[in-house]
Write a structure and sequence with these properties.
The complex is a heterodimer of chains A (about 110) and B (about 120). Chain A is an all-beta fold and about 110 residues long. Chain A is built from no helices and 11 strands. The chains are: A mainly beta (about 110), B mainly beta (about 120).
């Protein structure tokens, strides 16, 4: 089955700096890669996703890149703000109605 | 955007009792819902996939007789933890797939239910 690894497990950045979270996956059949943000005591919230026919996707301060050959994808947050502090999960799926496999999570702390 | 609700948000029960958690998609019809369990500072562990009108598919190691799942309509799935024990204490989160969002893979999560078994 699919195995998704995520690094780093914790990340501290100064407000205004950029943050990068990296994930690798094992199943070459995976072609859908969502990213979720989870605040303490809440459910995960979808923040951005990318499909394998696209190499990069951007939404305001958030961008995701995908290297299908190397089987890795990354989340980039620019101009970080304290409200970006949360746990971020990457995930991978073959798409369609198949299940999603989650990474281990990255706790991001943005220091004011 | 798509909204998924869960009820209750937190529940405390005595060991040996059963607890039912509801998951609703509020503004879309979900043919597929998922139930996850999350321990503190850990990732989400898929417990089962719930399909409307059919039996749920459980992941390996998850006891189907202990975690009863019913997906009776396109907007409601329930998880019942039967004969709960302290080790069942956890954060339970559901998600629902919106078949009309993107190519149908997008999952939207509920806010979670904190279960504490005394």
């Amino acid at each position: 089955g699919e195995n998704v690894e995520q690094h780093p497990s914790t990340l501290s950045v100064q407000e205004g700096d950029s943050a990068v979270i990296k994930c690798t996956y094992s199943d070459s059949a995976s072609n859908y890669f969502p990213w979720y943000k989870q605040e303490l005591g809440k459910g995960p919230q979808l923040i951005i996703d990318i499909r394998s026919n696209v190499g990069e996707k951007k939404d305001q301060r958030i961008a995701v890149t995908l290297n299908k050959t190397a089987k890795h994808f990354s989340l980039h947050i620019t101009e970080t703000q304290p409200e970006d502090s949360a746990v971020y999960f990457c995930a991978a799926s073959p798409g369609g109605y198949q299940k999603v496999t989650f990474g281990t999570g990255t706790k991001l702390q943005v220091i004011p | 955007g798509a909204v998924v609700s869960q009820h209750p948000s937190r529940v405390i029960c005595k060991s040996g009792t059963s607890v039912k958690i509801e998951c609703r998609s509020l503004d879309f019809q979900a043919t597929t819902m998922f139930w996850y369990r999350q321990f503190p500072k850990q990732s989400l562990m898929l417990m089962a996939t719930s399909n409307e009108g059919s039996k749920a598919t459980y992941e390996q190691g998850v006891e189907k007789d202990k975690f009863l799942i019913n997906h009776a309509s396109l907007t409601l799935s329930t998880l019942t933890v039967t004969s709960a024990h302290p080790e069942d204490s956890s954060f339970y989160i559901c998600s629902a797939r919106d078949p009309l969002a993107g190519r149908g893979e997008t999952q939207y999560f509920g806010p979670g239910t904190r279960l504490l078994v005394l």
